[in-house]
Amino acid sequence: MSQATQGGGAPDREAGMSFSIDEWFVVTLARTIRDREVVFHGFGSPCAQVAMHVARHSHARDMLLVEGATYAVNPDPPFIPPTGNDLSLQRSASYRMRFEEFFDAAIRGDVDRMFLSGGQIDPYGNTNVTAIGPLDRPKVKLGGGGGGCNLAATIRHLSLWTTRHRSGRTLVEQCDFITDVGHRTPEGSRAELGFTGGGPEWLVTELGVFDYDADGRARLRRLFPDVTLDDVKAATGFELQLAGDLQTVPLPSAAEIAALRAVDPLGVRRSEFAPQELRRTFTHREGARCIC
Amino acid sequence: MPFHLNTDKLVDLSQAAHTVTDGALIALGGGLSARLPMALVRELIRQRRRNLHVVGSAHSIDVDLLVAAGALAVCEESYVGFEQDLGLAPAYRRAAETGAIEIRESCCATILTQLRAAEFGVPFLPVRGVKGSDIRRLHPEYAEVTCPFTGEALVAVPPLRPDVTLIHAPLSDRRGNLHLDQPYVLDERFAAASRTVVATVERIASTEEVAEAGITIPAHLVTAVAEVPYGAHPTSCYPGYAYDRGHIAEYVTAATSGGAALASYLDRYVIEASTEEAYRKVVGEERLAALGCWSDSTTAWKELFA
């Protein structure tokens, strides 16, 4: 059972017992990382980027963190800047990889986890970051996939995320364009395509958390406490499958919230959320014991 | 790719940009908001270059400005945009949506493999990914190859030899030995795979000083070098200066409006500012100097981005 109650006021940052959805979301993403994993985030991904630093300062102290656009290994940035390619993201790094050092490692299978998002995500975890609508005349040309279309094939696990589930346009039955491959495409399964990575393991949204069943289809495992199943159904463009043990998303610890606020004083993670989502704040219930 | 052995590569910016001809395949150095060859991009626009084909990894205002000025025909970058912070690239997006430019979106790892094929002098190299992705549909030049040892079917990609690579670096000598700070992104690979390499640098120094700092790209790969202080502005060139987030936001606002607002940005910062000296004046010497304050303290650095 959740110990959280939804609050209307501003988070009490001093006490560390109140937090907003962006903070709970990032901590939830951080918890998809296991200790001693080699982990990478793409650029333009502040939530995933902050999550990696939170994980490294809480439950995954021996992970190897590779910054998404500087390829710095285990840096301690004084703050997360609004761009992925800034010198601050190399501060105190133990090593700085060359671009090709990172890509070689990922492609031969030595990187354990990557974070990926998309303007569209289908039930098999295929993602579209290229274009909405037909590519010869797209309705919206998105930025593009960076290195994802090779990396998604060989990195061991993928943690997918979106902060735009509620829009109803993100989780779709079929992507207009598949940039990065999930568990299965019209051309076949990962095994049939000869991919060595395991594909999407988690999909974290601002409404809840999905994992993937044996057929590689998304399955709702966790809900945020201020979200109903009907909310999720209304926002999801594919048939919603539920896990047998559907529960509330586990609460963040005070230590995780403190780590997050220390690494992201500029609040760049908040740029991923619609303004109305950022009004979602939570407090640990009166008398609840510290869970850190 | 062929070695360039002349001992004095020093030219001015105009001569450097003339290396790029209409229709050329060009690789842009740096990435996202760091060390983009912006002075060269502005000069190409002043010289009214047309039908360019750009290739590279993750880029932003360099590509978008070329699109805004009508200089681009084909875009083969893996990403063009302003990240979560400032969002989609307005001119690039509009041109893609109206069909004004051809989108051949690629993947960083595929481009790296293609550059290596050019460096190795082999007719193709295989990649393991790409299959199942619609990125493959944008590249009829890719083929499939069966491994003679394992029987595995892989995607074969051809060599990529840019006509010109454009790089901005903090330091070089007159011979063209370039010192870069990390991340080098694809600059080293571009330099080795390209027919010609044109660089702008913050400062020309003695060969001894550049060697002391560390030579990242050797002179024999470089065709021409021009001294252009703040040549990466509004992107960063550390240790000299951080990126100018305010200026980039001003550009994104103008480019999103399009029409007169975008024309006015281009006039003010590129066409009427007919040299880089004029550009620096319009931007403001004080503003530029303030971008160097990142090293004063963490607070000062943070405030630049707030």
Write structural notes for this entry.
The complex is a heterodimer of chains A (292) and B (306). Chain A has 292 residues and is α/β, with parallel strands linked by helices. Chain A has an eight-stranded mixed sheet, sandwiched between helices. A three-stranded antiparallel sheet of chain A has the order 1-19-2. Chain A is built from seven helices and 19 strands. The radius of gyration of chain A is 18 Å and the shape is globular. The N terminus of chain A is likely disordered. In chain A, helix 1 packs across helix 2, helix 2 crosses helix 7 and helix 3 crosses helix 4. The two termini of chain A are 17 Å apart. With 306 residues, chain B is α/β, with parallel strands linked by helices. In chain B, the strands form two sheets. In chain B, strands 1, 2, 3, 4, 5, 9, 10, 11 and 12 form a nine-stranded mixed sheet that branches. In chain B, strands 6-8-7 form a three-stranded antiparallel sheet. In chain B, helix 3 links the parallel strand 2 and strand 3. In chain B, helix 2 runs parallel beside helix 3, helix 3 packs across helix 5 and helix 9 packs across helix 10. Chains A and B meet through helix 3, strand 11 and helix 4 of A and strand 3, helix 4, helix 5, helix 6 and helix 13 of B.
Describe this structure in a few short sentences:
Chain A is α/β, with parallel strands linked by helices and 292 residues long. Chain A is built from seven helices and 19 strands.
Percentage of β-strand residues of chain B = 15-25%
The largest pleated sheet of chain B is described as: 9 strands, mixed
Based on helices, strands and strand pairing, what is the structural class of chain A?
alpha/beta
Q: Write down the overall mean pLDDT of chain B.
A: 97
In DSSP terms (H or I, runs of 4 or more residues), the helix count of chain A works out at 7
Count of alpha and pi helical runs of chain B: 13
The H/E string of chain A reads EEHEHEEEHEEEEEHEEEHEEEHEHE
Biggest interface in this structure? A-B, 64 and 62 residues
Helix content percent band of chain B? 25-40%
Compute the separation of the termini of chain A in Å.
17 Å
What share of residues of chain A is helical?
A: 10-25%
* Average predicted local confidence, pLDDT of chain A: 92
| Shape verdict of chain A | globular
Gyration radius of chain A (Cα, Å) is 18 Å
User: How many extended strands of chain A?
Assistant: 19
Largest sheet of chain A: 8 strands, mixed
> Roughly how many Å apart are the termini of chain B?
43 Å
Radius of gyration of chain B: 19 Å
As residue ranges, the low-confidence spans of chain B are none
Count of DSSP strands of chain B: 12
Which oligomerization state do the chains in this entry correspond to? heterodimer
